[in-house]
Amino acid sequence: QVRLVESGGGSVQSGGSLRLSCAASGHTSRKYKMGWFRQSPGKEREGVAEINTAGTSNYAASVRGRFTISEDNADEMVYLQMDSLKPEDTAMYYCATDNRWWVLSLRPAGYTDWGQGTQVTVSS
């Protein structure tokens, strides 16, 4: 089981920026994918962005052009730079990972290990 710890959440005004970080430990394979998901009260968890160790990334349409996912494979880190934040981006953000690195679909079911989450709140 891979341990994931998110950080960097907080409160920001609309139009502002935040950078989330996720520290992973325990990957047994050199090839894997890591993703960011979010969930608001009363809503299903949705995929935001994902990236595999080959550097291929995938974004939800709602964040494309505003969010950027990046990775540091040597340190098992993944980042989510969030710019031009909107109130509808308010949610708990989760980091996740899975060894099926070739499948990039932003589906929560495609991930096996999850962090505890970090809250992002965007005020208007």
What does this protein structure show overall?
- The protein is mostly beta strands and 124 residues long.
- The protein is built from no helices and eleven strands.
- The strands form two sheets. Strands 2, 4, 5, 6, 9, 10 and 11 form a seven-stranded mixed beta sheet that branches. A four-stranded antiparallel beta sheet has the order 1-3-8-7, with no helix packed on it.
- The termini are far apart.
- The mean pLDDT is 97.
Keywords:
124 residues, mainly beta, seven-stranded mixed sheet, four-stranded antiparallel sheet, 0% helix
Please sum up the structure shown:
This protein has strands spanning 3-7, 10-13, 18-25, 33-39, 46-52, 57-59, 67-72, 77-82, 91-98, 113-114, 118-123. The protein is mainly beta and 124 residues long.
How are the SSEs placed, and which strands pair?
Elements: E1 3-7, E2 10-13, E3 18-25, E4 33-39, E5 46-52, E6 57-59, E7 67-72, E8 77-82, E9 91-98, E10 113-114, E11 118-123
Parallel strand pairs: 2-11
Antiparallel strand pairs: 1-3, 3-8, 4-5, 4-9, 5-6, 7-8, 9-10, 9-11
Q: Which residue ranges are poorly predicted, with pLDDT under 50 across at least 5 consecutive positions?
A: none
Largest sheet: 7 strands, mixed
Mean of residue pLDDT values:
97
Give me the count of strands.
11
Rg calculated over all Cα atoms: 13 Å
Shape field: globular
